[in-house]
Amino acid sequence: MPPYSYRHDPAVPDFDDRAPVAFMDGDCALCTFGARMIDRLDRRGDIRICPVDTPLGQAMLRHYGLNPDDPESWLYLEAGRVWRDFDAMARVGARSGGWGHFLRLLLVIPPPLRDWLYAHLARNRYALFGRSDLCEMAPPSLRARLMR
């Protein structure tokens, strides 16, 4: 899809898209860990986090062809462009800097294997990592990033 295509989708609520946004499962322990890592590593402090169970999160997942009732992916939005899965993690790492740059190593994995691995982890995320509420016990710095 072209950049900013969601702006022309009447199902997607208007939101401030000037800063990057990570759309992720707020019930997944692995995603919660990812959100906490964004909070720690994002040197600019501008990456926001939108749980996919919000109206905006649900609409964005639908817009990009994902099932909002069983989100097996997460999205990273920056400058109107969207990345998914390990590509999204690598992009967040590159933007965050520092130790975050190591996430770019995910791109070394050949795409078919990388996609299979991500899909396998995503389908089994609750069994492998459990559940955790993104907002529960979140430090103030992380709560400030959350879009509700």
Describe this protein's structure.
With 148 residues, the protein is α+β, with helices and mostly antiparallel strands. Helices cover 39% and strands 11% of the residues. The chain is built from six helices and four strands; from the N terminus they run βαβαββαααα. The chain has a four-stranded mixed beta sheet, sandwiched between helices. Strand 3 and strand 4 form a beta hairpin. The protein is globular. The two termini are 25 Å apart. The relative contact order is 0.21. The model has no long low-confidence stretch (mean pLDDT 89).
How would you characterize the largest beta sheet?
A: 4 strands, mixed
Rg over alpha carbons:
14 Å
Major sheet: order of its strands?
2-1-3-4
Strand tally is: 4
* Structural category: alpha+beta
Percentage of residues assigned to helices:
25-40%
How many helices?
6
Unreliable spans are: none
What's the overall average pLDDT, rounded?
Answer: 89
Order of helices and strands: EHEHEEHHHH
Protein traits:
148 residues, alpha+beta, 39% helix
Write the SSE topology.
Layout: E1 21-24, H1 29-41, E2 48-51, H2 55-63, E3 75-78, E4 81-84, H3 85-96, H4 111-123, H5 125-129, H6 140-145
Summarize the structure.
This protein has 148 residues and is of the alpha+beta class. It has six helices and four strands; from the N terminus they run βαβαββαααα.
